Amino acid sequence: MKRRTLYLVLVSVIVVCSVSFFLLNRKDKEQKIYIFDQHHNITLNDVEESLKITPSKASNSVKINLAQTSMIKSIDHKALKYFKSLEKMFPESKDLDEHFKMIKKYLLSQFPLDEATFIFETYKSYLTCEVDISKNIDMKSINSFDPLEVIEALSNVQNLRRLKMGDDLADALFGAQVKSSEYSIRKAAILRDDSLYGNEKEEALQTLNNDMWGDESDDVGKNLSAYNLYQEKLNIYKKDIEELGSEEKSEMIRNFRKDFFSEDAVKNLEAVESRREEEKNRESLYNEKEKEIVDSQDLDDDAKIEKIEALQDEIFGDDADNFRARLKLRVQ
Predict the structure, then answer these.
(1) What is the model's pTM?
(2) DSSP 317
(3) Rounded Cα distance, 187 and 209, in Å
(4) Following DSSP, what letter does each residue of 46-79 receive, concatenated?
């Protein structure tokens, strides 16, 4: 069976999530219509596990989970990873029917009869639904750069899954991934909204965390590194920083750094930035003076080369040779 008929629509959706940074109008009522909010039983740990588990690692987990019971509660994001691994099996099958026959035979060799039958029927329901969605979904909506349109597409896909597979199975399989995608889109839209000041973004993010994660809202982002948290803080207060004078801007940034880094780390960051600024200024000065030499009508080419090399030695000193090496790389 051709692989492209088996690819999940969710893959396209997740890719879109990484680039959906345009503004989300949070005043719109649609913003409050979540696909998965705090009332759905999908935790931060579920999301984290769903992103970590590979199809190969999911296989044994599914065997353990499904061997315990034949009830729908045994299906979760681990099963989705396992189903993805089943999709890739038997690429030589000519159509979906043949693929299902081969999968059923394989499952019977791996599980007892009742468990194999349960897994197969669940997998068949899942894959039939995904193939149907891939044929009928409006890809323009999924690939939109408007966050509201992407969220609407995510919702439509998940609602169709619920219709075809039942709410419990659809949400158990896809809930963690869809909730992760939805949260990423909504959060990114807030961070990239250049019309908001920092306190407004902070409030919007807190509302989003409360709405989607409930009692776990304070734990959102706890696994992010100090550097990533610092960069996020800069995004939140971007408008405030841009409107400050030079001294006030430096002071605000330094205070943010103190929130996430040690005093020594802050000093090291400032030292690195100082060297970069100094290097930038030296190069700017060099470019200005080099242009004067190149444009000079009183010098021939040999004299220009000699004066340019002397200028490099004068401005960059011991680092002149490194600068000349960087210039060669730039023209290659």
Answers:
(1) 0.74
(2) G
(3) 9
(4) HHHHHHH--HHHHHHHHHHHHHH-SSGGG-SHHH
